[in-house]
Known about the structure:
The structure holds two protein chains of two kinds.
Chain A: E1 4-6, E2 11-14, E3 19-25, E4 32-38, E5 45-50, E6 55-57, E7 60-65, E8 70-75, E9 84-91, E10 97-99, E11 103-108
Parallel strand pairs in A: 2-11
Antiparallel strand pairs in A: 1-3, 3-8, 4-5, 4-9, 6-7, 7-8, 9-10, 9-11
Chain B: E1 5-7, E2 10-13, E3 19-24, E4 31-37, E5 44-50, E6 53-57, E7 64-68, E8 74-78, E9 87-94, E10 105-106, E11 110-114
Parallel strand pairs in B: 2-11
Antiparallel strand pairs in B: 1-3, 3-8, 4-5, 4-9, 5-6, 7-8, 9-10, 9-11
Amino acid sequence: RKEVEQDPGPFNVPEGATVAFNCTYSNSASQSFFWYRQDCRKEPKLLMSVYSSGNEDGRFTAQLNRASQYISLLIRDSKLSDSATYLCVVNMGDYKLSFGAGTTVTVRA
Amino acid sequence: DAGVTQSPTHLIKTRGQQVTLRCSPKSGHDTVSWYQQALGQGPQFIFQYYEEEERQRGNFPDRFSGHQFPNYSSELNVNALLLGDSALYLCASSLPGLAVRETQYFGPGTRLLVL
Lengths: 109, 115
């Protein structure tokens, strides 16, 4: 079983729509969680950390469910510039980051 | 404030050759991690260097080796290149801090093609 699994999508949504997707992780001892964004042929960039109580950053909301071992990301009022691959990232407390394969989101005009 | 830099940006090699990739961490960071990202996949952890020592290693063969210099910059060396080594190689830097909380910042990557 992969350490981090994501729905690859693609999610194709119109501008202004809300889109949400999840990822699951296998190691219950995982200690910190992140969403990174990666544009085509670019490096991953930190979008937001994910906290146990859930957190928002503008139009982005992240949730963590430790009991079920999943993380979610919700994007409200989608913009064309939100088109990217979103990488779910888990730190198991051993210095390395474990990445999912990414969820592709395309926002159309 | 310079971010993470990597060189070269692109590289073409043939099977059996050796390659060296270079990385300079973000200002103030002293920990460097290397990742391999194949097309359509997420980055896979190769190893991490801290205080010039390899601190953690992922599931990669010994053909992959590295080094960290006193100025915190780092090199990734791959020997006996295989076609399957074709990928984007990403360097990430972070503060030493507590491992569980530290965010890693990525460089633009080196795109390696093995023919």
